[in-house]
Amino acid sequence: MGIAATTAEAGGEALSERQQAVLDAVLALMVEQGGDLTVSDIARRAACSKETLYKWFGDRDGILTAPVRWQASKVRAGHYDSQHLDASALRQSLESFAANWLAVISSGTSVALNRVAIGQAASGTNDLGRIVLANGRFAIGERLKPLLEAGRAAGLLAFDDTEVAFRTFFGLVGRDVQIRLLLGDRLALSETEIAADAKRAAGQFLALYGNRASFEARLRLAPQDEGGLYRPPSS
Amino acid sequence: MGIAATTAEAGGEALSERQQAVLDAVLALMVEQGGDLTVSDIARRAACSKETLYKWFGDRDGILTAPVRWQASKVRAGHYDSQHLDASALRQSLESFAANWLAVISSGTSVALNRVAIGQAASGTNDLGRIVLANGRFAIGERLKPLLEAGRAAGLLAFDDTEVAFRTFFGLVGRDVQIRLLLGDRLALSETEIAADAKRAAGQFLALYGNRASFEARLRLAPQDEGGLYRPPSS
DNA sequence: TGGGAACCGTACCGTACGTTACGGTTCGGA
DNA sequence: TCCGAACCGTAACGTACGGTACGGTTCCCA
């Protein structure tokens, strides 16, 4: 930090092709080796000189934080359209959100980036923590809330506080996944597991916030494949 | 790690009074200054010599991990008795679990300890990650599951997989609290906020896993103070 | 009162690593 | 063809910090 960088990441303008390749190398190194990177390691891996690294990113902190900022800038995804929203489309969108989010937080790059940000948050001066939060937790919140409110407007959901509803959804989706991965627990989420988890989370969310009519319909159906819904004791 | 420590933390025997005081100092330093501690810092703060620190804990890694192990060893709490379990007692126990867990993860020491463990998990050799997980996430799981199963045995809860049910509870309680704190978000949870969150989480969990009779009773009541339950549109 | 163990505070050593400097190469434009 | 900018690889510098050594003080016990 400190001294302003010369070229990149200062105003947040576009990075050159080469610079992006370097950041990719840094990221790959973070993923496979952890946070204790030496600048020489990075230079060797990226096949560029240390002088260039310092010229581009200022100092070691800049070199390590650049990939975080860069990845964060790529998170932006398309908003979901809230037209023609019926119960099925709502459920589908919720599942899609959940699956997407699970895929993100369980990816190696996300884990590595969050570790770097947490390490930096520990060392007094924050920045990365705010950036990661803004582009993770809060970004998905701002993207999901319109869907929730559209669902409410369509009479499919019922809640007072959108923030509370979103945080519940967040908890139902993420559960213990992120903290376990951050702490080094092996936890390989396959494509199908993510899909199943997303389905369960969406179902539980709808059970909590769906309107009574649709919920009672689901009660009568008593589906077997979604956790958390009551079914009559089989005994 | 590496070379076995001489006195403390080797077999996990009791630490002397003085040693505990030193670990308290390390912990306090972690909380207020973050993870980038020098051994000299610690020695100055703990008012002891570096020589003693190395003698007791082996090397820098031992010095930093000792307080984590020590705190972890203190987490053990009494099991909840599952006798005389009715709906009210179950709800009370769930709320108690939730409030306790929220208080733990939002405490400064927990945040600092988790940051240290995450930083160490990033640097190849794990250990702390496993310890923190074993004494946090998994310990509470093992303590809560008997309660859940007792509730099921009493006909108050319905679920197939205890693990799935627990993870749902975990998600409903923690939501985004831990990751936000780890990333440096200011998020002061007051006593009353924790109590309210615990109540909401327990209510949502019971709405998902409670049996139909009690759930329908709560539907008719349409309580105002618990998030996530449907109430008829006031319009 | 003497002796030894434990420990504090400080000084010291060696090294790893952040940062800078420099010679050599590539490449695009006049 | 020449020039300069950008960059690579390597070497050099300075320092911070992990780890050790040592003299001085306290305290326990014979």
Give an account of the 3D structure.
The structure is a homodimer of 235-residue chains. By secondary structure, chain A is mainly α. The N terminus and C terminus of chain A are likely disordered. Chains A and B meet through α6, α7, α9, α10 and α11 of A and α6, α7, α9, α10 and α11 of B. Chain A binds a DNA duplex (30 and 30 nucleotides) through α2 and α3.
Sum up the overall morphology of chain A in one term.
Answer: elongated
What oligomeric arrangement do these chains adopt? Answer: homodimer
Count up the helices of chain A. Answer: 12
Average pLDDT number of chain A? 84
State the separation between the terminal residues of chain A, measured CA to CA. 64 Å
Largest inter-chain contact set: A-B, 61 and 61 residues
Can you identify the CATH class of the largest domain in chain A?
A: Mainly Alpha
Assign the structural class of chain A, choosing from mainly alpha, mainly beta, alpha/beta, alpha+beta, or little secondary structure. mainly alpha
What fraction, in percent, of the residue positions of chain A are helical? 55-70%
